Amino acid sequence: MTPPPSTGASGVRDITSRLAEICGPRFARLAGPADEVAGSAARWVAVPGGPHAAAQVLRLAARHDLTVVPRGAGTKIDWGAPPERVDIMLDTGRLAGIGHQPPDRGTAEVGAGTPLRAVQATLERTGQRLALDAPSPGATLGGVLAADEAGPLRHRHGSACDQLVGLRYLAADGELAEAGGGAVGLAEARLLCGSEGALGVLVSATLRVQAVPAARVWVTRQVWTPLEVHDLIRAVLAARLDPAAIELDLPVSAGCRPRRDRRAESMALHPSMAGRAPTGPAGTGSLAVLLEGGPADVAERTDRIVDLFGSRSTVARTAPPWWRSYPFAPGDTALRLEVPMTDLHAAVYALRDAAGGPVPVRGSAGLGVVHAALPGAMAPARVASILAAVRGVLLARQGRCVVLAAPPAVRRAVDLWGERADLAHLRAVKHHLDPAHRLAPGRLPGGL
User: Fold this and answer.
1) Dihedral (C-alpha) 229, 235, 238, 242: value to the nearest 10 degrees?
2) pLDDT tens digits along 6-33
3) How confident is the model at residue 189 (pLDDT cuts 50, 70, 90)?
4) Sorting pLDDT into bands at 50, 70 and 90, what band is 255?
């Protein structure tokens, strides 16, 4: 993208002043060192107080040929490719709130800038919830939709995008659009899911709500190998236990099965240990199944899954410490692997083989969607070779491996997305919704 027309000191002041008029003096400023998107620094930050003000910001950007990148809580601001330019960072923090709807309607309209935990806290007062549990702490609903982020509950309920009833968004020219109300409308709404703000600025979303489950139980079992995980998941699914989630945690040290310790097993089964979760031998991974529903029904299904898992299983009313969290840390190369569940073990083995050893893996094993981490200090060429090997295995299994985040040198050296069969369609959608490429240019695959 070519640079915008020269804005000297007077031009900068004019734009800053106009943003202050639109958003209010306290909500428009020149960007600071922390205002960047995947390493691309912004020039201004605008926090509009509502959809009308946000539309005015977009029209101002169009008049001055400036780019706009939306930002929610910034929990995933480093995911994806860096934009070519970030002239105005449009903060959605004031596009927040929960619409008042009758509890029996089964939906809730939520402002894009509303933190997901605030939505859940509000709904819980009426015994309801969104079936969303995105791992990013503090994430806004708009950020979850824009990144198509989902947590363990995706196993039964799908992602936030799957639960959409309707969507309101601003097109690049500032026009407020609504999508929903039927298959065609929902298809249009879901185009914006995972678009990282490059197709429109989300204003609000209407999603399905449900009653808070009366009972929740986690059954966890130690595991050592991906093949063992594969066999256990197949057994759980074949038993028709209707799990709300099936999650896997394979830390770096997992992989070597210790010798059987009959004395330790006998002690773990002693009545004095009832209700206690054993620490388990070092080097083990964990497979955890969440059961939700009525107390009697959950109790019956819990007994059945304990019979399947055997003596190494534990039952708890609270989630394991690693539940609903990613295996990567800031600075790591973060990967998402998607493959049919029946081939998940092959994908994990391929990743281990390519990396030359165990790699931390965590995620929704029951769906074949997991995340993995490579050390941030790993040489870019080494990361590229690992990706090529893993993608070669996944391609034959209708799977894919996406780089969510990575150090700058790795971003420059690798293809973040791999092969995309939908690139032509995505290009057509981008041209239709943002013909001037002003919204987050370069954030989408193919440099769109």
Assistant:
1) -70
2) 466 667 889 999 999 999 999 999 999 9
3) confident
4) very low
Instruction: Tell me the C-alpha distance between 387 and 249, whole Å.
Output: 21
Least confident of 6-15, 285-294, 421-430: 6-15
The type of residue at 386 is I
pLDDT for residue 191:
85
Q: Is 63 exposed, middle or buried (0-12, 13-18, 19+ CB in 10 A)?
A: exposed
Residue 435 Rama label (left phi>0; alpha psi -120 to 50; beta): alpha
Q: Which residues contact 223 (CB under 8 A, 6 or more apart)?
A: 229, 232, 248, 250, 254, 284, 285, 286, 287
Q: How far apart are CA 114 and CA 92, in angstroms?
A: 9
Q: What is the residue whose two structure tokens read 């954030």?
A: 443
The angle, 0 to 180 degrees and rounded to 10, between the axes of the packed helices 51-63 and 9-23 is 160
Q: How do beta strands 201-208 and 164-170 pair?
A: antiparallel
Average per-residue pLDDT for the chain: 89
Beta strands (DSSP E) in 103-160 are 107-111, 128-129
Q: Which two tokens stand for residue 73?
A: 């809580």
Four-point Cα dihedral 338, 343, 345, 347, nearest 10: -50
**Residue 158, burial from CB neighbour count under 10 angstroms (0-12, 13-18, 19+):** middle
